[in-house]
């Protein structure tokens, strides 16, 4: 199948990438952009380990086609504000919200809606 070039913004930086029709956002983040903070767990959209935000909405990047992210804002764990020494910097609406026991253990978790 033919690859296409698309542009998306990852952690505030505009990126141009080439993807195939079945390339997932997880593959792009980890393999093309080297953002390995987003993990691959089940690879089937069940566990939430690969969760990132696309235009502020939590998505399972292992089952989210990269082409759907074209022109959108993607936020991974690498894009969250942290300070040296392990203390959090300015709190975002995501990082300041306590996680419930039903959510995956992933710093980029957000309310599902
Ligand atoms: S790796 Fe489990 S939901 Fe994506």
Descriptors:
Ubiquitin-like (UB roll), mainly beta, 7% helix, binds FE2/S2 (inorganic) cluster, 22% strand
Description:
The protein is mostly beta strands. The chain has a single domain, classed as Ubiquitin-like (UB roll) (Roll), CATH 3.10.20. The chain contains 1 helix and 5 strands, in the order ββαβββ. The chain has one helix at residues 25-32, and strands at residues 4-10, 13-19, 51-54, 57-60, 73-75. Strands 2-1-5-3-4 form a 5-stranded mixed beta sheet, covered by helices on one side. Mean pLDDT is 84; it is low at 109-113.
Share of residues in strands: 15-25%
- Which architecture per CATH? Roll
Give the quaternary arrangement of the chains: single chain
Q: Assign the structural class, choosing from mainly alpha, mainly beta, alpha/beta, alpha+beta, or little secondary structure.
A: mainly beta
What is the CA-atom radius of gyration, in angstroms? 14 Å
CATH class group: Alpha Beta
The count of DSSP E runs of length 2 or more, i.e. the number of strands, is: 5
What composes the largest sheet? Answer: 5 strands, mixed
Spans of at least 5 consecutive residues with low confidence: 109-113
Q: State the distance separating the first and last CA atoms.
A: 33 Å
Reading the helices and strands in chain order gives EEHEEE
Q: What number of structural domains do the residues give?
A: 1
The general outline is globular
Question: How do the strands line up in the largest sheet?
Answer: 2-1-5-3-4
Number of helices: 1
Present as ligands are: FE2/S2 (inorganic) cluster
Which homologous superfamily in CATH is the superfamily? Answer: Beta-grasp domain
Percent of residues in helices comes to under 10%
CATH topology category name: Ubiquitin-like (UB roll)
Query: If you average the pLDDT, what whole number results?
Result: 84
């Amino acid at each position: 199948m033919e690859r296409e070039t698309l542009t998306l913004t990852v952690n505030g930086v505009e990126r141009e990438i080439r993807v195939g029709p079945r390339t997932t956002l997880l593959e792009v983040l980890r393999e093309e952009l080297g953002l390995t903070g987003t993990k691959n767990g089940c690879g089937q959209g069940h566990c939430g380990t690969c969760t990132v935000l696309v235009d502020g909405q939590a998505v399972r990047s292992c089952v989210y086609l990269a082409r759907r992210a074209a022109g959108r804002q993607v936020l991974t764990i690498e894009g969250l504000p942290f300070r040296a020494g392990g203390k959090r910097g300015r709190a975002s609406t995501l990082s300041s919200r306590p996680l419930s026991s039903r959510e995956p253990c992933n710093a980029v978790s957000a309310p599902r809606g």
